[in-house]
Automatic annotation (TrEMBL), chain A:
The lineage of its organism: Bacteria, Bacillati, Bacillota, Clostridia, Thermoanaerobacterales. Monomer. This is Methionine aminopeptidase. HAMAP family: MetAP_1. The gene is map. GO terms for cellular component: cytosol. GO terms for biological process: proteolysis. Removes the N-terminal methionine from nascent proteins. The N-terminal methionine is often cleaved when the second residue in the primary sequence is small and uncharged (Met-Ala-, Cys, Gly, Pro, Ser, Thr, or Val). Requires deformylation of the N(alpha)-formylated initiator methionine before it can be hydrolyzed. Residues 12-238 form the Peptidase M24 domain. Its EC number is 3.4.11.18.
Automatic annotation (TrEMBL), chain B:
Keywords: Ribonucleoprotein, Ribosomal protein. This is RNA-binding protein. It comes from the Bacteria. GO terms for cellular component: ribonucleoprotein complex; ribosome. CDD domains: KOW_RPL14 (cd06088). The keyword Ribonucleoprotein applies. The lineage of its organism: Bacteria, Bacillati, Bacillota, Clostridia, Thermoanaerobacterales. It comes from Ammonifex thiophilus. The keyword Ubl conjugation does not apply.
Amino acid sequence: MIHRKSERELQYMREAGRIVALTLQELEKAIRPGVTTKELDSLAEEFIRRQGARPAFKGLYGFPASICTSINEEVVHGIPGPRRLREGDIISIDVGTEVEGYHGDGAWTFPVGEISEEAARLLEVTREALYRGIEKAVAGNRLTDISYAIQTYVESHGFSVVRDFVGHGIGRRMHEEPQVPNFGPPGRGPRLEEGMTLAIEPMVNAGTYEVEVLPDNWTVVTKDRRLSAHFEHTIAVRKTRAEILTRP
Amino acid sequence: MAASDNCGIELGRLVSSKAGRDRGRYYLIYEVLSDRFVRVVDGRIRRIENPKPKNIKHLCFHPKVAEEVAAKLRQGERVTNAEIREALERLISSPEGGA
């Protein structure tokens, strides 16, 4: 069952999403060589709570922090710690919030200082892939029209999309039905209807799409240890154009 | 936070047949032969003595895994047909909830 949200429910999700976007903006300002991911986590947690929301990742499936920080070859679910950012790194930050029982989920990959040309291109392609996917999230389309748009855009630029992790429905819970893969043929899966809320999140690798999970049981890294980027918005399906909920 | 794709090929996963004379029938994955072929069992018609080979293209993957069966299979322990039947029944009757 995919739950379609009422206007009242969407109001809460807009607020949760707005706080996600604001938090990412705050974090962007703090990103520079020398800062630790733990510092970013504390900053985010404090900011989210001050906005009257709850950091929804904390304790979710046992995750120990408020945000996920994934550097370079780390794809998603990196745990904040004492590691310091260095010039030339890329860092993906994933933020989740909860307001009145409703969730927002968004991610962005930021450059740390000057980054390589390949890294810059990876970020650009992943961000654009997200928006290509969002374009397909309109009522009447099928779910995997989103997946197909993302995959074809990414692969036409010589990168690959992660298979083992996927986007998801979102609302009362962080992860609801349906799964939103970033790959596969179009025209499959449930038909999209107004009020469905989805977290669309391409995870794009510079090399192979294969990933593995580190012994901390959270951090996902690329198998070939090449770079990976991650951009995510929570959206609501609408008639002519998806509404992006994770925006300031 | 990304959801892990909980519909991959793995031991103990609930699947149903999309094609073949067994179409619509539910099974558990008993053995993974390659990235395209698996052997499946239902403990009734397809018992562990003769698991059915299936092309994954002809299977529908469900977001449910029989954890106890999977754990035993991974360790190479014996699983009985009764256990398979029990697990199948339980998975089929519970609502589909994805994490």
